[in-house]
Amino acid sequence: MTPTWQIGVDVGGTFTDILAVDPSTGAWRVAKVPSTPDDQSRGVIEGLARVDAPLAGIAGFVHGTTVGTNAVLERKGTRCGLITTMGFRDMLELGRRTRPNAYGMTGSFEAIIPREMRLEVPERMGAAGQVLVPLDEDAVRRAALALAEAGAEALVIHFLHAYANPAHELRAAEIARAVWPNHYVTIGHDILREVREFERGSTAAVNAYIQPLMARYLSRLSDALARQGMPRTLLVMQGNAGTMTARGASEHAAQTVMSGPAAGALAAARIGIEAGMRNIIGCDMGGTSFDVTLIKDGQPAISAEKDVAYGVPVRVPMIDIHTIGAGGGSIARVNEAGILQVGPQSAGSRPGPICYGRGGTEPTVTDANLVLGRLDPGSMPGVESPVPVEQVKAAIREKIGSKLGLDAIAAASAIIAVATNHLASAIRLVSIERGEDPRDYALFAFGGAGPLHATALAAELGVPQVLVPRFPGATSALGCILADLRHDYVRTIGRPLLEVEGAAMDAILAEHAAEGRRQIEAEGVPIEGIVVVHEADLLFRGQSHVFRMPVASPGFDPAVVLRDFAARYKARFDIELGEMRSIIANLRTTVLGTRRKVPMALFAPEASGTPVPRARRPVHFRGVAHDTPIYRREALPVGFELPGPAIIEQMDATTVLDPGAMLRVDAAGNLIIAVGVSA
Amino acid sequence: MSAPEGFADPVLLAIVQKQLDHISKQMGWVMTRTARSPIFSQSHDFSCFLGSRDGEVLAQADGIPIHTGGGGFAIRAVLRDFAGDMADGDVFILSDPYVAGGNHLPDWTLVRPVFLHGALVAFVCNRAHQSDIGGGAAGTYNSAATEIFHEGIRLPVLKLMERGTLRRDLWRLLLLNTRCPELMEGDLSAMLGSCKVGAERLASLLEELGAERAEACLAAVLDHADRRLRAAIAALPDGEWVGLDGSDTDCFETRDIPVKVTLTKRGETLRFDFTGTAPQIKGFKNSGIANTYSAVYMAISSFFDPAIPRNEGTYRCVEVIAPEGTVVNPRPPAPMTMNTVYPAADIVHACWKALAQAMPERACAGWGKTSYGISSGPDEHGSVFVMYHWHGSPGTGAVLGRDGFHSMGQFTTLGGLSLPNVEVYESLYPVRVTQQEIRPDSAGPGEYRGGAGVDYACEIFVPTEHSYRAEGLGRPTGFGVNGGDFGAGGSFEISIDGGPWHVAPRYGVERCGPMRIRIASAGGGGYGDPRRRDPAAVRRDVADGIISEAAAQRIYGLAAESSARS
Predict the structure, then answer these.
(1) How far apart are CA B530 and CA B443, in angstroms?
(2) Where are the strands (E) in A74-165, listed by range?
(3) Inter-chain touch B543–A103, beta carbons under 8 Å
(4) pTM of the shown model
(5) How confident is the model at residue B6, as a pLDDT?
(6) N or C, which terminus of chain B has less Cβ within 10 Å?
(7) Which residues of B touch A404 (CB under 8 A)?
(8) How many CB atoms are closer than 10 A to CB B44?
(9) Domain ranges in chain A?
(10) Are the beta carbons of A575 and B424 separated by less than 8 Å?
């Protein structure tokens, strides 16, 4: 059998989504199964069986995972030891001396490596990479033995200024490896060759903390897949929306942080491009969180750093995803002063919204949607014994309405209005902070709850169009199928731009590119080509936030780079800092191994003719009940147009079309909604 | 400003409030990404806030509490001096705490009026600590000052920008009065940029609401905060309580400088009366009236539910009595640059102590007081560098349910300041930090223990001017509450030109050769009886070296064998 199937898997906290596509025949299948947190590979194998793709016929298998992210959030990673520079063993605990919450005396922080597992050795580099104190090799050996003895499974070696001169870290690693019982030794500069000891050390610590878990999980899954006859290497999504081999992911585990949402953003970008919308804002709303990504000219924004949890930054290039705690499970309350608040508390999936009938008593956004008629009380995914709508209504009337002088419908509308505003703030933050006007973008709504709110959200923001993809709930799995192989490299320069030699910069960038090519070739994954992108981080002397922009290499010319920098800075911040000295902080290279593209038109619906509503029911919009048709998504043919109000239902999501909005089904089966002025 | 009768759109109110907060955050975002000085770009020693057209602070979501609480004084000074002489595109600048509503001279405040259809509707403000403003010591902290004239240039309310055009003459005057003109130019540009963005966003929000509704909404935002704090105060019993804190130095000699507050709670109101507080002092630890209000507001905000909004409406039910001629309301020309730290921390501590008697379960243990100074000297490019030794920060106090944070930094920022990395410091300045490590047995004992101080050591390779500002030395300052105990006091030693170690001066400015600094910073206070601390937590602290075996047994009552490391 010639392997032709492409499989994308996204393992979330509640569900595992699987999408299987065979581009040669145009066949595709999608499945959603409960996740199996004790051993996620069971859920994956179960899902595979559900899509019925022959394992011997699999050409590519890409996996997005939250194993690493969750281990950090829940502090369930492996026991690690740290060997660091004399005088600095507390740097990862002291951090930048911020607090989780500014005013209230609340919030706490637990270092991922406890203090007793952090040891110091005499050694010291200066900022220019000069040796100030030679490495005490015996001390390294003793520290490694002591940490292994104390039960550390993974070891982090992290020294000050190792980005400038890694000699001590390399030698210490050599000594430690000789006595360490396994290969879980993470070296700071190897994970990130960039100035700032807290962020670099934290990234290395996260890597060590999740590495054994990732390695064990991925090898279990690889073995299971191989046993069942899958001929190809398992690939894993990274936070930068590229993929690498399972083996690479086991080494560079920190790269997998946020890989699920990154896959979603990637899919959003690709679907957008094929739908002719290159500027979109990805809005992924589920039960507990709302993830926003800005996609400009078909490219998701990349950020250099993300706090996985409070005080735990991971500084690797990642799709820039802004997350707020707002979802279907967000709880609505009226505070002492009589103001309605929605979130940040969430009912989660247990007990969940009142309507789930699992003991929830606090009204949530989902309950409000139900009361307003936007959700079908008869078919809530995963809900076994729903609570009657009248009961949910009564709860909203009692807990919200009575305190605001509103009836149940008006109270539910108010909950949706406040929630929508909260979501809109997140979008404003992500767009306006980058100097982008959300009105120049389309909203790309996905996740189970995204399409429920997108039209109202767009109206609030003045965004003219909404795109709801074919599988809102399986977008991340689709992203896995679309992702290219990707490796990122960085090197701190930290010198005045006009003082560096172009040839020296070219040499570093060429080294990056060669390393990337070598990695990709070693991974043995079929690719169509290799793309190399070079960038530089620049700033003006004294600043500490860098400005990243593309640079040409070979042929790096500092004078040209400076001119380009000044022009871009002016365009972005409307400030001219021309006379100030500019510094080249870092050089960066991204190497992509491009995989065969899957055309989106594959997912076009097969339906034809004029669809008939499955039902009609009253749905409330802005306080007025409209008799609203309910359609099955599968029944809508390409080219079909539908004025709001309407509700479109499918297995993994519900789309709400507000009055005044106009829906059209495009050639790939996406719903394109013109929001309309009156909506 | 007060909302018209019958304004009852709680949904719209919640939305407007969020948007105001968001605008102030956006201003801060522009500032961090464009400012020149590390103090802004890395440490966020600035604050952006919005004001009503009457000069009440509407939103202060961005920045650090001691800056914004009294921000209304600055806007009201602008209104007083330029009422009727304001136009769209004007930007005012001010700093003086005596005549211009400033908090202390280094914090320069830009105030930009916002107009809608030609009518003044609001203000956007950016208050930021400048790297240098002239005066007797580089870096703004002249601890030898005895008059405000020794502390740098004083700015009354000035029009820096007129209808969008910068006043170049004034700009040159400002840059002439700093040792770091290049930094100041970049920083002021960033402040102007952030105000421009804020003004545009606020105008467009108010435009969308429409003039009438906008006015009602802004008033309602203040009224809402007022109702929230009143409701929280109503839960306290009526009564009168005294809180006492203070210092043991006037910057020149050792003496008692009490800050005393009598808190009276009646119904839904609080009165903080500072009668009995020390007369103003010779040194620069006097608190101007705006700063005193900020400190009282900070004590309240951190004591009550953090979900209560913070704007000037919040504090309508709070009365502050600050007798003239005392350290909490001095007469000119008393110096006061240190006031955002001291006596601000003394004021907050005194207020917390009084509040704790009214509601013991919300008591906040004291934060260790700071002792780090500031080095300034020539960098390799020949410019003046200014470096704060704040990696030697003290620990914070505990509260019910949570241990204090280790070495959390300056008290009056409540953790809003983030410290630069040592690697960055060493790349920028001719210094080397050789230690920043948790200091064993410095955390105040308690069921919830205080945060530990640190052992901090630094070498400075070039001759510098060092400004000493040491408060948390010797006697402990981070008090315990409800049976918890003090965190340890600190120590501060120096060695100049390779000479022997000796105790550093508490205050003052010295020109030093290459020097070494060694600080053991103070610990925060504990909450509750240490013998009630979870034994597992005590054992973990022993294993981690935060408390010694001996202290675990003596203070926490841990049996000898059970503290052994497993």
Answers:
(1) 12
(2) 80-85, 118-121, 124-125, 131-133, 154-158
(3) no
(4) 0.87
(5) 39
(6) C
(7) 10
(8) 21
(9) 5-71+214-256, 77-199, 484-594, 610-674
(10) no
